[in-house]
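Need tokens for this chain, all 380 residues.
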Amino acid sequence: MRICLDVRGNHFGGVLTYSYSILKQFSEINTEHEFVLLLDEYQFKKNLFIIKDLKKIVVPVMNPLKILLWNNWVLPKIIRDHNINVYHGFKHFTLRDTCAKVIFTLHTASWWLYPELFKKKELFFWRNYYNFGIQSSNLIITNSIADKKLLLETHRISSSKVKTIHLAPEIRFSKISDHKILKNTKEKYRLPDRYVLFVGTIYPFKNIETVISAFGFAKKHGKLPHKLVLVGGESSAYGNSYRIKLEKQARELGLNKDILWIGQVSDDLPQIYSMADVFVFPSLYESFGLPCIEAMACGVPTIVSDAGALPEVVEDAAIIQKSDDVEGIGVSLIKILNSEELRQKLIKKGLERSRNNFSWGKCATETLAAYEKIYYGNNK
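Here are the structure tokens for all 380 residues:
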């Protein structure tokens, strides 16, 4: 079986982690199947997918309209010319009939749940694009049961057409104890001695205004010496407008000197997690929520919201609060930071949950099984 893995457009965040981690696992799996990797020039130049033994086809970076045209006129020809049996779009897909079985991964169903949080042009393009893809694909992969449920509630499709495959933390996410490495990371980013941590794209869905407000509540009522460290790059859809709004909020609450913005981080992220006293992640919706699993894998007590897949992912290994409950999240911060017994309980449960239930090997194996089932049916 020849499988085309289309990872175009995945340049940062959880979708990039997903794409790279699965491709790496595929390159190491002993299989008779052949993989063809479709990536864009930006990914190629930035060496985002340096993976051995995968044939690569590089295409230009395009705006949404050109993507739509290219996917429907050029992509089917590539599928045909390379004798592709199964096409897996990690973000994109063709809407035209092809000789291949078409699978795509829907990384969020939030387009249908929170339309008001998207810019109108962005919402119009992607929601219609995915609506067509959902109807025309042979199989849709979601990252969580919560996303599958939302997808089935908003579209007239069979449950058998949607398969849930959980994501996982990269193997590098574990508790870092090397004092020299930690010291160098702390100096590099000028990290405070004690801090509350948030990791995620600076984007309205991440509900960072609640992170700031809850932190302010904990500072005021818990007399905490901690700073708040925010890690993440700005969303291309919002630019710096959301961050400007958050900075204004911090000034109004008198917290601007207690908040450290350090932008997007990759290689040093395990150390930053490992030095945090608590991780807080009250998103309005998450299709999976990789940062909370990464934090737990690094031994950090974690607070998440009850939105989307987060309760499904953390179960009882983290404290769960409503996404708009500033006081509840603030009180949870105070409790964790003042109770060593609670801290150790959450650390232990978080490590067990992240280690025993999620791995990229499992994710890749389940994905490969989905390819085989959609192509061979029940004959293999």
